[in-house]
UniProtKB/TrEMBL annotation:
Pfam families: NusB. This is Transcription antitermination protein NusB. The keyword Heme does not apply. Residues 17-29 have a biased composition (Basic residues). Residues 7-16 have a biased composition (Low complexity).
Amino acid sequence: MSENTQKPAAKTGAKPAAKRAPAKSARRRSREAALQGLYQWLLTGDEVGAIDAHTREQEGFGKIDKAHYDALLNGCITEAADLDAVLARHVDRKTTELSPIEHGVLMIGAYELKHCVDIPYRVAINEAVELAKSFGGTDGHKYVNGVLDRAAADLRPQEVAANKR
């Protein structure tokens, strides 16, 4: 055999090493924790303080971006009516009829689009899509992507227009 041809790998019976998923960023973890809290709030209507206390007791809470988590959880609950009004223009039913996971994900995405201008709009949408893939229904991420893409045009018109050029 020439040196450019590779010999077939010997069968050793060992399985190839599984690829490790990249470590989650502190921001992604904060979105996941906020989603858990929003899910609880959407289902139970519990006080934000009780939800926050419960969420902070969860394993791995120390690895999150606490400031971003606080902004998302408190901001989404405080501004729920405003966020739902933004989303209502782009959803095909009342936000109260959405699954609580998709509703929470959309609230987080809309909140980030509205208030976290340090996060590019495409990143905010992608992060919401990833949340929906991890926690939502089979095709929920597609719905989230479409709704937030249209909401971004309302909430960040200059950034969206500049990106389309």
